[in-house]
Known about the structure:
Chain A has 350 residues and is an alpha/beta fold. Helices cover 20% and strands 31% of the residues of chain A. The longest helix of chain A is centred in the C-terminal third of the chain and has 13 residues, at 308-320. Chain A is globular. Chain B is mainly alpha-helical and 512 residues long. A two-stranded antiparallel sheet of chain B has the order 2-3. A two-stranded antiparallel ribbon of chain B has the order 4-5. At the A-B interface, strand 1, strand 2, strand 13 and helix 7 of A face strand 1, helix 1, helix 3, helix 11 and helix 14 of B.
Amino acid sequence: MTYQLCVEPLGETIEVEEGQTILDACLRAGVYLPHACGHGLCGTCKIDVLEGEVEHRDASSFALMDFERDEGKTLACVATLAADTVIEADLDDEPDAEHHPVRDYHATVARVERLAGDILGLWLALDDGPLAFQAGQYVMLEVPGIAGPRAFSIASPPSQAGEIELHIRLVPGGKATGWLHENAREGLKLKFAGPYGRFHVRRSANLSKLFLAGGSGLSSPQSMILDLLEKGETGPILLVHGARDAAGLYHADIFRALEEAHANFAYLPVVSGEDASWQGARGFVHEAIERRFGGRFDGQQAYLCGPPPMIDACITTLMRGRLFERQIFHEKFLTPADAAQARSPLFKRI
Amino acid sequence: MTTTTTQSPRAKKLGIKERYSYLTRGLDWEPSYQPREKIFPYTDYEGIRIHDWDKFEDPFRLTMDAYWKFQAEKERRLYAVIDSFAQNNGQMNVTDARYINALKIFLTAVSPLEYAAHRSYAHVGRHFDGVGPRIACQMQAIDELRHAQTQIHTISHFNKFFDGLHDPWHMFSRVWYLSVPKSFFEDAMSAGPFEFLTAISFSFEYVLTSLLFVPFMSGAAYNGDMATVTFGFSAQSDESRHMTLGLEIIKFMLEQDEGNVPIVQKWIDKWFWRGYRLLSIVAMMMDYMLPKKIMSWKEAWEIYFEQGGGALFTDLARYGIRLPKYHEIASAEKDHYSHQAWSTFYQYTHAAAFHTWLPDAGEEAWMREKYPESYDRLYAPRYAHWGAEADEGKRFYNNGLPQLCQVCQVPAFFTEANDPTRISLRTCEHEGEHYHFCSDGCRDIFLDEPEKYVQAWLPVHQIYQGNCGGATVPEVLDWYHLNGGADNLDYKGSPDEALWQSWQASKAGTGT
Lengths: 350, 512
């Protein structure tokens, strides 16, 4: 038995298992809720129940008092659902977020291209109408014969709603990506659901945009940058794309062309491995930005996409350079193991 | 599990944060006939630079109106439990009267600190040049007063039956070991507002809080003291606000100006070490004074500091903050901390307002299991020796007065981190005077602000200077208002023990 939980003010709906706490379900679905003790004692995770029905479970009578229960409050860290429910949590409102309904889509592979050694480009033509999404969002793709859908960020801009582009990195030992790398060809029928995720450009903040991509993490930034330029963004945009060798810097031609066409866009490719053929910048992404900005990032807004060690190193470099949590964004694909990892409550989103 | 996003069917309304900001807007004002620096004279001199007070996020967004409603309800519930504990003679249902001695330390050492915290938060709340921290401090000031008041009721209850609780406020300013918590808090109170919050809200109430709360609240629960457990729940529901204030103020200082980073680091170093030394008393309570034990000090240190604190400092590293200086010394001491503290109090219990005792056979087995590296080798032989002396009617009391550390005021009984058979003692010269310390940590703190710590009121020095009622132990105890023969000495043979045994006998129906 599962219930639907709608989280306001985000307007995001997730599924909650019977007996699963609201906090656990939210964190696993990538929705951050304020919390601290995790045992119903401190009251940090107090939320309003707007509709539906919850069980308060082990909430302390001091952390959640009788009159609060009567007023429709509960503690997310211990409360479970007894019906489909709508809650309101103390979350920042996101003025730039668009809300697009999630639907199931049928698509046909229109084009397959090897972008780099272990990255395959897939262009999916949508069989039953266009996909409305916000640049930075992802889809859950079903791979024939493999249980459970896999998440892939959309690399094309929302203006190309009839055909979406995905970048599929071959995960070593990965069943789904292995299957796609071997079997994807023009005409293949696939199914997916989407769009998902809250990774999007905060244009209203009016700051310089810094996109940091590692390997196939280029997909979301590509969509976001194309979208921004199409919409006439005039503020500075820098894309730093890191790869182990020059061959991994796929789509360099696209970004060099954009650099020619737009005075406000700059492209900085960087190679971390030993590659004698490479003439450009060397090192990791966080080292490249450290050099480029002299270690100071005030006035920037950073969007990060790539493998976890790269994300971690970049956040550290940005924060040491005085750019803080409210201007750093990255897509989090949380696994249950991540949710269980010991984290301090110092940061909310990063 | 998959997620689905749908268009929200409800009309767009203000978020909780926006509602609060509209509700409270305009409550601060711009002064017109006095310059700001005269109204808020303390916000600059510590060197902390703030550029935009509005960036301080009040994480709780509680209005005063709602605050009163919450606190009134908490009081109602808590006093119902305290009353019922009294009416049902709850004190008779604890595991053993030895437990009450842990409570005596908590009530005489911590309750006055709650009151001191009330005064301090009221003070810094008045002096913050920003409305966010001002409101948070104001509410915490009232919370702390509430905690002090509740604990005074508890003192009053246990004082009806047990010794050592009859004059805690008087004792707090005079008794030697109570100068440890008193001087700790006065050090924080007499600092500037930003250091005070780093000391108490961050270092103590956030970084070290579990090490204080777990022994008291779980200890009380394990040992049948439901009144203290209920107080714990009641206080913990305020504690989330207090801990969050600690985290927010640290983030706020670190993000406002990078010149603040080394200042904050210095304070974290200092207050980690100050707090850690204060917790030596908690370590001995956990390992020796709870008849039914929860976990050892060593285990608590590993879980709550090495693991829990590790995650926090991994995150803080992104601001350029590292683990507190000497954290590795604290970890090296975990096999010895509680044993050395208890051994000291065992020797000086004739001058303390609580009882001590030697661990029994069952407790020694527990010690061996929890401290395989140190207990049998270093501490069991000492207790065996003292036990044999006590059996011969020569219970050991040390009549020499110990050297106190100039900073933490704990007797210099801690050993070198790499050699538990050698006492750790550090010294320095300052303006022709010689000063003594228990550790490099305390010596560093002194050297940074010698003009502050030369003023320390050190109980042993004061006795020698003739300021404590006289030169003999009975005269000093009189000056402490300590009832010799009742409040002090070994638990064995104490009036507390006799009372407890009479209760046990009457429960068993044998009567006395």
